[in-house]
Amino acid sequence: MAYHDTRHLKDREIKSRYDDETYEALKAVARLHKLQLAVFVRMCVEEKLESIVELDVSGKHMQA
Known about the structure:
By secondary structure, this protein is mainly α. It has helices at residues 20-32, 37-57.
């Protein structure tokens, strides 16, 4: 299946590592919302990134 608009493809990979407790929590919440773990983590990252950008635009700075 070919995509006409390739901007929506998610083909850039970033690996991250978590301790057992965080990993199990991520899996549990993803399962609760019926999402794949990678999809859930990407959603979390995108949401946090959006909030950081909004704070930067409004003139307030925040550390991650």
